[in-house]
């Protein structure tokens, strides 16, 4: 069986310009490195779930939307029939080896540029340059704020030195990056006080922080200080600031990751002009679409959500399209560890958008020319403009 | 090209009685005046977005769901081909002139009665009577509570006089109105203390308020006082009380405009019997539908949401239909400034409801007679009953 | 007209194994007894709404999604044409008598086992054994925690005796039950402090409680104590703990019944391993699906929501399927009072799942074998495993 080509994933009856726009290489404006080694079955099961734990006895993480999608859509990329069993799939994966598997799946995603969040601690992940090389794409780095802060916290500084060193480190890392990213949603929730903390409160909080530097950052004062320092750097360098929003792993308190609770902070940033990109957002993507519709500096994607809702993802795409301006939406796969997640993220973005477009064309709502233009904006144009690629 | 007739907007295969019920003139139970003058392009762009700001450089507010809908559905009403470009559309709009444009679009909406919220400060808006005359419809006024309060606050009263004068002014304005409306969602959020504030606390708050009367009302004590005064007047006169809920412009904190957080106030009103109408509600329209299903005095619409979700609006209609009793739903366009928003609101209400009905008929869920009856209830019957039109 | 057979409710074009899996008898893992007597029209109207009040003058609770569904789907089970009028339906219902009506509707539901929450005070409800006998099914009991607590509170104990007696009573009742259930969502909201309250605070709160024992439990300290006592019992006996989440009657503050606000309590239970089942959840079923996807001990259904969203329920099923692992979803009807609600719950579960499956098969997302397997897991397999039936 030949490798699946990206155009196999679209409905047959789209006008050619729309099809071409949907199949054009996209900017994956938020992803992570995939693993360079061959995982065991139990390792692979953990790579395809946001749960940090094995499935309950007698069950498997393959019995999930994303598990079924891997068997359906990734199996052919590895030369298997669709719906291969998990055992057959993983056997074939080992046979080909991680290098070839990663190359095939990243290429199948049809990506022009990867913007890679390098802030994860996991060992054995491909670098941005390697992601680009394997995927036939350009690659840039997204710097995770909390990773830099952790490095600074562990550097043996005094509380008085903390803020200055953090700012220098942020500036140095930002100089080589395409954007900055915050996971404040995981650390203190997005419902933090939007004001910039005072110098005194930062020094006091830094003193407590540095007494236990291995502990991960969760003090709201320091999270806010980190964000405002990042805003300063982002403004100087013209970089967007990404926020994890909505669902993720079991560490998040979902309702505190609703981007609506970030509104006051977004309002505070409006006069500054730093672009803010709300990532994932599920199940609060309608809230995110509203924010993108009323704040000129706010952008939105549903990255992680499409991979994990899989066969149900077209509805998520459709719901984002309800209110979000076409010039405010972006594509990301948020892949991490398993290259399958990159292929599926791109595939479900294209399929979901194709279905929404097909419906609008059938009802006469959009012209084919508009549909092609909108598909291009969301797939790459908006990201190229905002990230200055 | 002839003007579009309302029946062009419905699917072809509906039974005749259903089609007739959907095309029958509706009661637009919540709208605002449209502008009497010809806007420039930049002015028009701001009239079709809830964002108060221009689109970012290189983008346009026409690249939104509502922008695409104007090009698709309003262009033919002005004698253009569907999908006319923004430049062509606005040129034709100027050529016809605001008077003719407003007449065509308001007539195309197929409205029997406009209930017009007159509380906006914007100059150059048509009066209710003018809206009715241009649209070939009856017209009545909805009195905005916060507008009256602002007038009272600026009248140079003492804190002790404030409450009495406010009550008199409310009663006087209500005597000529079809309903009252609150934008408490914008001022202090809907999660306010549901109890009636004490006379002492109102006088104290009025003292602070009157020291800076130009500032808009946002003190929760005075918002609550205003609401309870409105409830008294509404009970005396048999008027419904409308609440803005859900999305709107950038001033709203979305999660605090969730009608679910109004539950305790709704519960407090249950024994009083004043009808409460939850407006717009997106993306919390399912929450609103629940409230309408358990509280006999609560009604619901998705007015503003249909215009702005446009090609995606059928899903919003469908979600409201999931739980809301048929005798509790109403239609509103919430048009403001641009007459296009009135036509689109009515059009997407009819199209969304038509699609939901077509599905239910195809699946055998409803009989055609029930479908026609329900379309009539939602389009006008419920509003005529509740507003006593 | 012959009685409707369950297979009449499915689309015609499903593969045979999928159809068989959907039609197989299910485990209704959460329901209540139906009434043994013949209701009047006004009584019946109250049995088919979550509102505790009659519909407003000039309207009827039959003009709701569930009302239309009764006329469509239950009328044939009673030998009437679909879409019979309410008067004809209720006349036929009286003619047949409650015994025969209950037998027909419970049989039509196609249930293999009822797990019956016996904690409601309403008189005249069938016992679990009677539900099973009429429905041709096995039957087990689900013990409602707040019912036991009420009995203990009214037993004339001292504050010091309260905790011990409650624990004994819980253990005694759990010994004969298939699971435990909490309605904390109704009593103090799900956003309670997740920690186990201290012995001292429980005795103090019990003192206040026992001073007014007829009042229903709403003290958060005692609700938490009850829950932690239930967790101890559940762990000892291997029982799941059900939580009412999302919509219900007018007593619930909807946003405080969002299962997302239960996250910290779920996290606290993770190491203990007691299965937690989130019931109903609408409109927060996506939040519940997320919780089921990241916590190995968390399960989910949309029981009550399907009956009440009726013709719109397929979307709810589809949204649950977006993120919830297949091995984490269950079926329940949550019927109470009217046997119609049991038939409709089962019918809309089968129809909604059938539609989701048909879509996935048409798009090649799932294989027929997987579809059949997943239908079986959700319909009965997961419940048999978790409740150890």
From TrEMBL, chains A, B, C:
<feature type="domain" description="Amidohydrolase-related">
    <location>
        <begin position="219"/>
        <end position="389"/>
    </location>
</feature>
<dbReference type="InterPro" id="IPR006680">
    <property type="entry name" value="Amidohydro-rel"/>
</dbReference>
<protein>
    <submittedName>
        <fullName>Amidohydrolase</fullName>
    </submittedName>
</protein>
<dbReference type="Pfam" id="PF04909">
    <property type="entry name" value="Amidohydro_2"/>
</dbReference>
<dbReference type="InterPro" id="IPR032466">
    <property type="entry name" value="Metal_Hydrolase"/>
</dbReference>
């Amino acid at each position: 069986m030949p490798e699946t080509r990206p155009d196999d994933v679209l409905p047959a009856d789209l006008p050619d310009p729309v099809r071409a726009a949907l199949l054009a290489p996209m900017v994956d404006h938020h992803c992570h490195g995939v693993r360079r080694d061959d995982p065991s079955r139990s390792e692979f099961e953990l790579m395809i779930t946001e749960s940090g734990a094995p499935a309950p006895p007698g069950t498997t993480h393959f019995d999930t939307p994303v598990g079924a999608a891997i068997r359906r859509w990734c199996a052919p990329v590895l030369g298997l029939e669709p719906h291969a069993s998990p055992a057959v799939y993983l056997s074939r994966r080992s046979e080909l080896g991680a290098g070839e598997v990663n190359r095939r799946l990243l290429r199948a995603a049809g990506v022009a540029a990867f913007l890679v969040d390098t802030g994860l601690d996991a060992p054995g992940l491909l670098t941005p340059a390697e992601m680009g090389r394997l995927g036939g794409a350009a690659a840039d780095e997204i710097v995770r704020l909390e990773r830099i802060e952790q490095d600074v916290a562990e550097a043996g500084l005094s509380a008085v030195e903390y803020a200055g060193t953090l700012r220098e480190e942020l500036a140095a890392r930002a100089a080589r990056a395409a954007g900055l990213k915050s996971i404040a949603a995981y650390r203190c929730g997005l419902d933090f006080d939007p004001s910039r903390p005072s110098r005194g409160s930062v020094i006091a909080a830094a003193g407590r922080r540095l007494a236990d530097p291995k502990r991960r950052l969760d003090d709201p004062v320091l999270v806010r200080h980190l964000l405002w320092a990042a805003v300063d750097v982002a403004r100087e360098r013209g970089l967007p600031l990404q926020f994890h929003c909505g669902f993720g792993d079991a560490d998040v308190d979902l309702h505190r990751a609703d981007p609506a609770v970030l509104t006051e902070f977004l309002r505070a940033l409006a006069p500054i002009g730093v672009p803010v990109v709300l990532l994932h957002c599920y199940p609060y993507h309608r809230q995110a679409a509203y924010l993108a519709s009323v704040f000129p500096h706010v952008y939105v994607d549903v990255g992680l959500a499409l991979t994990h809702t899989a066969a149900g993802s077209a509805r998520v795409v459709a719901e984002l399209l309800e209110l979000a301006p076409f010039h405010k939406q972006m594509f990301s796969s948020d892949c991490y560890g398993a290259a399958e997640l990159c292929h599926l993220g791109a595939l479900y973005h294209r399929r979901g958008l194709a279905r929404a477009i097909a419906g609008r064309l059938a009802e006469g709502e959009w012209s084919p020319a508009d549909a092609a233009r909108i598909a291009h904006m969301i797939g790459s144009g908006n990201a190229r403009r905002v990230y200055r690629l």
